[in-house]
Specification:
Antithrombin, Chain I, domain 2; six-stranded mixed sheet; about 35% strand
Length: about 400
């Protein structure tokens, strides 16, 4: 099953909007939120339905089918585990046509014993993310009627690992710190480029994984916001934003953290790419209702009335919507996980140089963004902003996992 381009655009648009609200270090997965909003839209009515459709970027009547298609496509991606779960109170009467639209075997029933039910939900989250996310991001309350959740976990390894060494930035927010630096040199200058955006220049580096996923690192001008830099990254991924590749750039300082120079070489490669970045681990918890307009939940969170007659004849409103996200980037690869839930409630001697080469030298040594992307579909699965990279220890961390 191949996900439609309109759905990919909808998910990536939501990623861009959400990143625009980022403040400080974070990780987020619009791909984890989008299917939940889609199934809610399918069962919603009135203003709630219209608001959810706007957040999705699709008509509400197309939402459930698009969500099933997206989940099916993600389920077929090597290196990505994804799941959807639905749990309902024993007394909640679901409309069969809505429940039948969810993936098979996704429906469970809450026992009514909240500690037992919470433990079961937490176990589900942990098992489906390989323990990266240890519990369900929502906590069951007395008036909870239903929990609808997604979980995804992604892992990709670098075909050519980075070398790990101490990194000591000589300027910027990380000056004075010793970080886990990652260095790699290759003959692929096309994997880095510069985009000129209305807000400033952005340097974008693609780090390919071995199983169809790439991690894009994006560094903007210091005056740019995280949202502006990540939006440029999404535009570059979707090829909607022109990017000038490393092999076509002039000598000198050509973009944020990017310099091109001539230097002696041992081999006759005409252009080489020299990358230095930092390892990172980032965890974030998000209250989606705090950004209710972005996610189309403004009306739906009003517990004074029901908004989802297509889900149940019983009145339902969104009492909680949360996401927990984890991302790790190291010498050997990248992994990430996200669990999202909505809870409706009632309401190297000296060398002998013989050649010269052009070196495209990139250095990510101040806050930057990342995007984990499925190469074939251009679907952004996880995005984030790094403000606190991994510190270098006396016994250095090896491998990234």
């Amino acid at each position: 099953m191949q996900v439609a381009s309109a759905t990919v655009r909808g998910v990536n648009r939501l990623t861009t909007w959400w990143a625009g609200a980022a403040d400080g270090g974070t990780a987020l997965s619009a791909a984890g939120v989008w299917p939940l909003l889609a199934f809610l839209a399918d069962g919603a009515a009135g203003p709630a339905r219209a608001e959810l459709a706007e957040a999705l970027g699709l008509p509400a009547e197309q939402a459930a089918g698009a969500a099933r298609e997206l989940l099916g496509t993600m389920g077929g991606m090597a290196g990505l585990n994804s799941a959807l779960g639905l749990w309902t109170d024993r007394t909640l009467r679901l409309r069969e046509e809505w429940r039948a639209g969810l993936p098979a075997d996704s429906h469970g029933v809450l026992s009514g014993d909240r500690p037992t039910d919470q433990k079961a939900l937490d176990t589900w989250a942990a098992e489906r993310t390989g323990g990266l996310v240890e519990r369900m991001p929502v906590t069951l309350t007395e008036d909870a009627r239903m929990v609808l959740a997604t979980a995804l976990s992604l892992r990709t390894d670098w075909p050519r690992p980075f070398d790990e060494r101490p990194l000591r930035p000589d300027a910027g927010p990380w000056q004075g710190r010793t970080l886990v630096g990652l260095h790699r040199r290759s003959v692929r200058p096309d994997r880095i480029g510069v985009a000129n955006t209305p807000h400033g220049y952005v340097t974008a580096l693609k780090v390919p994984g071995d199983n169809g996923f790439d991690v894009h690192l994006v560094l903007g001008e210091e005056r740019m916001t995280p949202g502006q830099v990540l939006a440029a990254g999404v535009g570059a991924v979707e090829r909607a934003l022109p990017v000038t590749g490393g092999g076509q750039l002039p000598y000198g300082h050509v973009g944020p953290g990017l310099h091109i120079e001539r230097q002696p070489a041992l081999s006759p490669e005409p252009v080489t790419l020299d990358v230095t970045t930092t390892a990172f681990d980032v965890r974030a918890d998000h209250d989606l209702l705090a950004l209710d307009r972005l996610f189309g939940l403004t009306t739906a969170k009003d517990i004074r009335q029901g908004h989802f007659p297509g889900i149940s004849a019983d009145p339902l409103a969104i009492g909680a919507a949360q996401q927990s996200t984890v991302a790790e980037f190291g010498a050997l690869g990248f992994r990430a996980a996200a669990v999202t839930a909505v809870m409706p409630v009632a309401g190297s001697g000296p060398p002998q140089y013989r050649y010269e080469t052009t070196v495209v030298r990139a250095r990510f040594d101040r806050p930057f963004g990342f995007l984990a992307v499925h190469r074939e579909t251009q679907l952004v699965l996880v995005a984030g902003w790094i403000t606190d990279p991994r510190p270098y220890q006396t016994m250095p961390f090896h491998g990234g996992f």
